[in-house]
Write a structure and sequence with these properties.
Blueprint (H helix, E strand, L loop, with lengths): L4 E4 L14 E7 L3 E12 L25 E8 L2 E7 H9 L8 E4 L6 E8 L8 H5 L3 E3 L7 E7 L7 E11 L13 E10 L5 E4 L9 E8 L7 E10 L2 E8 H9 L27 E4 L10 E2 L6 E9 L12 E10 L5
Length: 342
């Protein structure tokens, strides 16, 4: 097994030179490497938090669902998008595996300003088996892909010029068994906008998720509106067979805690301007298929004729901000399988 090499990310292109501009910053990482992790360092010249609240000189920055500083983050192989999520959604994905893996804050050694550190995991070091933890590393082979791309949407809520840098961990594949191997199975993340038109709502997942590989995790995020709605109960069928009974979000949280995961109980954030968001009101519903920590436990997607989720929603009286457009719910689907085609 080759050593892991820490490296600085190449410079992001497209970062605006003045505050308040909408832009997409892009970083291209070279092929010939097997990537394990990318850590994004995100902030701005005022130590602004990712939600737009100003905390100059402080590392105690909130990461709000709305995201006034950073919008979507996309990971691409060549021109094909393999992962899509916001900074907040990425943090929730990581935090499910324990507090060790969620967002961190630090002070820049060059400027002294506070930065948010967000990890994009390709290998999955939170799995208990060393072999299982290495399965998902991305072997970006020369001749197969021209590089690995990270795109970050920078939003107009920034009150100062954004700061976007980072590091990566990789194995050099030259002269190793990986040099002539393809990328193999990777974990992709697709982002879906679910219209919440009533409760209960039947969601046809067959038309939303690739029919290849294994489904690892579904995550349902609350809506953004005066009385935000979250998934209170979830029932699932595949090919006419029940694969989950009507399980409440509280029951699912207890199931996941039994497997040493840490599901999100509620939003714990601040809104732009610093107003506190009430907690304990709108949890994320995490549906984990490979909870036994074996990647082979994911739900097989091949030969799927029917795949339906019946969601029942609960509304709250507490105002909050979230990743979803008004009246819509964001669902993330994590899938282990071949990369999305070009």
């Amino acid at each position: 097994m080759a050593i892991l090499i820490p490296d600085l990310l190449p410079t992001f292109e497209g970062i605006p030179s003045s505050a308040g501009q909408v832009a997409t910053a892009t970083c291209k990482l070279p092929p010939g490497r097997r990537y394990h992790r990318i850590t994004l360092e995100i902030g701005n010249a005022l130590s602004q938090s990712l939600n737009g609240g100003l905390t100059p000189g402080s590392a105690a920055m909130a990461l709000d669902p709305k995201g006034n500083l950073v919008g979507e983050i996309r990971v691409k192989l060549g021109s094909a998008i393999q992962r899509t999520h916001t900074a907040f959604e990425l943090d929730m994905m990581n935090a499910l595996n324990g507090q060790t893996w969620n967002r961190r804050t630090t002070a820049s050694l060059t400027t002294g300003l506070a930065l948010n550190l967000l990890d994009i995991h390709f290998a999955e070091p939170y799995r208990k088996s060393i072999g299982q933890s290495q399965v998902g590393a991305w072997n970006v082979q020369r001749g197969q892909y021209d590089g690995l791309y990270i795109e970050v949407d920078l939003l107009s809520g920034a009150n100062s010029v954004p700061v976007l840098t980072g590091t990566c961990l990789y194995e050099d594949t030259d002269g190793t068994e990986y040099a002539d191997q393809g990328i193999g199975f990777i974990t992709t993340v697709s982002r879906h906008n679910i219209g919440v038109t009533g409760t209960p709502l039947d969601i046809n997942l067959k038309d939303k998720i690739s029919e290849e590989g294994r489904l690892q995790v579904l995550q349902f995020f609350p809506t953004i509106e005066a009385a935000p709605r979250c998934v209170q109960y979830l029932k699932m069928t595949r090919n006419g067979k029940e694969i989950q009974d009507r399980i409440s979000v509280a029951q699912m949280q207890q199931i996941l805690l039994g497997y040493e995961m840490q599901p999100t109980y509620s939003w714990a954030a601040t809104t732009p301007g610093g107003a506190a968001v009430p907690t304990g009101t709108c949890p994320v519903y995490h549906k984990v298929f490979d909870m036994r920590d074996d990647v082979r436990d994911g739900l097989p997607l091949a030969n799927t004729n029917e795949f339906t989720v019946r969601a029942e929603f609960a509304a709250t009286a507490a105002a909050t901000s979230a990743t979803s457009p008004a009246g819509a719910m964001i669902m993330l689907a994590q899938r282990l399988g071949l990369p999305v085609a070009r």
